[in-house]
């Protein structure tokens, strides 16, 4: 309300002062989650006085809107559009790019575009080895692609990170070992699967 009162008296403000107040109003609106209105204020401020700080803030708000829209779209099951939005987020948000890249891979998996998803999961795995979720997803995709030998260490890591509670990854590890000609290793894994779940039909 204070900023609105000041802005309502344009004759009393020099250009730079008005731009600064508009930028501050934009910051307040961002804090309230009113992002489109915040962008409007920042655009008005930039039209008066170009400032690198204001331009950077505007870019950050645009990215926030983009990523929020990507998450919302994914939640609505619109995976094709969400994949595109996450891809754009990767290109624009360098700080959070690995997070958005991983989510793009998830969307591609949902769309059964497994080769593309696998390439993304491989990139995430190399750049962010602390992302424990990627091991299970990458391992499963490598298995579907019959890349048995490559799947083995990834699935071993998936089982280890999940404290050996991930029965699906444990079974898939057995499949990968069997197809990698490690029959004894596969037998031990399948016995482990059955000992944990006697009704596991595939093992």
TrEMBL record:
Q: What is this protein called?
A: Tetratricopeptide repeat protein
Where do the TPR repeat units fall?
Answer: 98-131, 167-200
Record keywords, A-Z: Repeat, TPR repeat
Q: What organism is the protein native to?
A: Rhizochromulina marina
Q: Does the keyword Repeat apply?
A: yes
* InterPro entries for this protein: TPR-like_helical_dom_sf, TPR_rpt, Ycf3/AcsC/BcsC/TPR_MFPF
| Superkingdom, taxonomy of origin | Eukaryota
Would the keyword Repeat turn up in this protein's UniProt record? yes
Q: Name one Pfam family in it.
A: TPR_19
């Amino acid at each position: 309300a204070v900023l609105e009162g000041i802005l309502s008296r344009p004759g009393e403000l020099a250009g730079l002062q008005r731009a600064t107040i508009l930028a501050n109003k934009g910051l307040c609106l961002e804090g309230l989650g009113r992002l489109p209105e915040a962008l409007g204020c920042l655009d008005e401020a930039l039209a008066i006085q170009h400032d690198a700080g204001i331009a950077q803030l505007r870019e950050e708000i645009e990215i926030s809107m983009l990523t929020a829209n990507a998450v919302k779209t994914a939640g609505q099951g619109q995976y094709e559009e969400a994949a595109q939005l996450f891809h754009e987020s990767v290109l624009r948000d360098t700080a959070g790019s690995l997070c958005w890249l991983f989510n793009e891979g998830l969307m591609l998996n949902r769309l059964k575009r497994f080769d593309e998803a696998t390439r993304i999961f491989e990139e995430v795995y190399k750049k962010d080895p602390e992302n424990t979720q990627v091991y299970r997803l990458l391992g499963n995709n490598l298995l579907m692609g019959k890349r048995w030998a490559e799947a083995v260490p990834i699935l071993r890591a998936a089982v280890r990170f999940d404290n050996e509670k991930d029965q699906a990854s444990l079974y898939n590890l057995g499949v990968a070992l069997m197809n990698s000609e490690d029959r004894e290793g596969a037998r031990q894994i399948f016995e482990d699967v059955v000992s944990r779940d006697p009704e596991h039909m595939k093992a």
